[in-house]
Amino acid sequence: MKRHILSGCGAAMITPFKADMSIDWESLAHMIDYVIDGGTNYIVALGTTAETPTLSSQEKKDVIEFIKKQVAGRVPIVVGKGGNNTQSLIEELKTMDTEGITAILSVTPYYNKPSQEGLYRHFEAIAKASPLPIILYNVPGRTGVNMSADTTCRLARDFDNIIAVKEASGKIDQIEQIIKNCPKDFLVLSGDDGMTVDVMRKGGDGVISVAVNAFPKCFSHVIYLASQGLFDRADEAYAPLHEAVCALFEQGNPVGVKAALACMGHIDNNLRLPLVPATELLMKKMEKLILEYELC
Q1: Which of the 8 DSSP states describes residue 277?
Q2: What Cα–Cα distance (Å) separates residue 269 from each residue in 77, 217, 260?
């Protein structure tokens, strides 16, 4: 594993809401401290887990400023900046306030379903416009397009400011190809909590995690062990988490993680439409797993 400030465990932060669906700033401050105190290496703002598509432009700016103030330099901050309108994203990057931000996380264009050449040219344009290093984000289950290992490696070779990929394809063979064929200093981060130890065993560099929101000490410890090459011990440490992590994704993200956090009393279980809270059945399952494995 490479020693880099964005290796290890990054927390894909939630956005807590009040009953009136306004942002719950007090709970967001608590969550930031909770994951940092639990051992998280860096914070990722405005990703999928943050329900970013439901936030207004002003809310996004306010969230970034709030997170920067609350983090107060304790850990690096990565900000989600992606979209399916390349030109619009370029204009946004040109006016971005970069103070206190280490990198951007940029998802593959969704809905348009571009070809591999289209993906390359999209990120080429982003790389030329971005004032910050870029983490590519490949999540075909959400975007409808899978960025191939060849395209990822081509981008990594051609642009020095494309420094990493968050790989959520679920394809371990594809991830292995990226690890093998990308430049040696390129970071490969798991986008699937349950695959992280396997990805790191293959030579990956960590994870941008949903689960660390709910179980920061336990999950961060798993990643620390894997970062030390202690993979068998990491597997053992992950075993009590396995069922709960699977449950986090039964009804989608961030539905499950907000359910878990609500069970533990960290936030109110509110989501903005079109997302709705977890069913009572999942809530009871989560409560049982948290108690059974002493995850709170």
Answers
A1: P
A2: 25, 22, 9
Judge whether 68 counts as a catalytic residue.
no
Distance CA 170, CA 140 (A): 9
Over the stretch 17-58, which tens digit does the pLDDT of each residue have?
999 999 999 999 999 999 999 999 999 999 999 999 999 999
166 is catalytic: yes
Distance between CA atoms of residues 187 and 204, nearest Å = 7
Predicted TM-score (pTM) of this structure: 0.97
Q: Which of 60, 137, 238, 258 is catalytic?
A: 137
Question: pLDDT tens digit string along 104-125?
Answer: 999 999 999 999 999 999 999 9
CA distances from 116 to 82, 140, 145 (A): 17, 13, 9
| Segment holding 261, helix H or strand E | helix 255-263
- Domains (range + CATH), the chain: 8-230 (3.20.20.70)
Where does the pLDDT of residue 1 fall: very low under 50, low under 70, confident under 90, or very high at 90 and above? confident
Is the pLDDT at 2 greater than 80? The verdict is no
**151 CB contacts (<8 Å, ≥6 apart)?**
116, 119, 120
With CA atoms as reference, report the closest residue to 27 among 215, 268, 213. 268
Q: Which of 68, 166, 258, 285 is catalytic?
A: 166
